[in-house]
Amino acid sequence: xxxxxxxxxxxxxxxxxxxxxxxxxxxxxxxxxxxxxxxxxxxxxxxxxxxxxxxxxxxxxxxxxxxxxxxxxxxxxxxxxxxxxxxxxxxxxxxxxxxxxxxxxxxxxxxxxxxxxxxxxxxxxxxxxxxxxxxxxxxxxxxxxxxxxxxxxxxxxxxxxxxxxxxxxxxxxxxxxxxxxxxxxxxxxxxxxxxxxxxxxxxxxxxxxxxxxxxxxxxxxxxxxxxxxxxxxxxxxxxxxxxxxxxxxxxxxxxxxxxxxxxxxxxxxxxxxxxxxxxxxxxxxxxxxxxxxxxxxxxxxxxxxxxxxxxxxxxxxxxxxxxxxxxxxxxxxxxxxxxxxxxxxxxxxxxxxxxxxxxx
Length: 360
Fold this sequence. Notes:
With 360 residues, the protein is α/β, with parallel strands linked by helices. The chain folds into 2 domains: 12-261, Rossmann fold (3-Layer(aba) Sandwich), CATH 3.40.50; 281-357, TATA-Binding Protein (2-Layer Sandwich), CATH 3.30.310. It is built from 12 helices and 14 strands. It has helices spanning 26-29, 35-43, 54-66, 92-97, 101-112, 130-133, 147-160, 187-190, 203-206, 210-228, 302-309, 347-357; strands spanning 46-50, 70-75, 117-122, 139-142, 164-170, 173-179, 238-243, 248-253, 281-284, 289-292, 314-317, 322-326, 329-333, 339-342. Helix 3 crosses helix 10 (210-228).
C-alpha cells in the first residue's frame, strides 16, 4: 500500500480564468454558515473515508458532491451482489468486473465531480499503515464494520490531533459520534474495550436496512462539512442514536464522561496504534468469510499464483486481485498477501486453506 505523493491543496475559486468553477455549489453556498469562504475551505480540505461499504459509499458520495478537495478512500474488500441493496456507488457491472470497492467507488465519483481529487487505495487498515493513510488528512470518517479498526482510528486521531466521526448501523438502528481531540469525549471514553467477538449481533444475524445507513452516513457527512468549512462550533457533541423502525431518535449527553479517567485521552495510551491489540484475522460481517493478513507486508505475483491454482480450481484475475473457486470455497487474494476465504467463518479452516493454496 502506497499513499500517492503529497498534492497541492485545491483552491479552485482563486483562479480568475475560471470564475464559474463554484457554480455547481451555488445552493450550498447560499446557506449562510457555508458561503464562499466555507466553500473555499471545503475545496482546500482532505478527508479519509475508511471503509467504502454501506456507510462509506454514502459518505464519499455526499462529500464529493459537496466539493471536498481530496477524498482518500480505503477499503480492503470487493463488490458483491448483496452489497447493492445499500451501497449506493455500486452496480451490477461492478460485481461482474470483480472490482475492489475503492476502485469502483472512485470510478463513479470521478464522473460526479471532476473538480476534486480521488485517491482510491485497496488496503487493509492496520497499525502498520494507518499513520501513512492519515498523512495530510483533515478529518477521518468511519465507514468500517468492526470495533478493532474503530479503536485504531481513535488512537491515531488522538495521537495526531485529527477530528474523526464514528458511525455504525445494525438492523434498523444506527449511531454516530463526532470526536475532536482535546475538545470532546473520544470513543474510549464511551467504551473502554470493544465488545468481545461473538457477544453482539452482526449484520449476518440481525440484518440491516438501507434507510438507517443513509441517515447515519448523512449525519456523519454533515458533521464533516461543518468542521471542514470552518464551523467546528456547530458540531454535535452528543452520541446520536436513531431507530427507523420504532421511530426513535435519542441524544446521549457525553459531557458527563470524565476524560481524566480515559486511558487514551488522559493517559495517552494507544495500544491499537502500537500493534499490541492488533489481529491478523477477521470474520467478515454477513459474508461467511474470513480475512487473513500476513504479519508482514508481502508482494505476491498474481500471475504466478494463478498458474499454480488453475490445476485445482476455477481461476479469474484482474490487476487488483485473483479469485480461485476451489471445492466449496472462494479464495480472493490480493497482491499484498491478504486473502478473503469465502465459504467458511471458521478461522482455523481459513488458515488451513490459505496455507494449502497460497503458502505461509
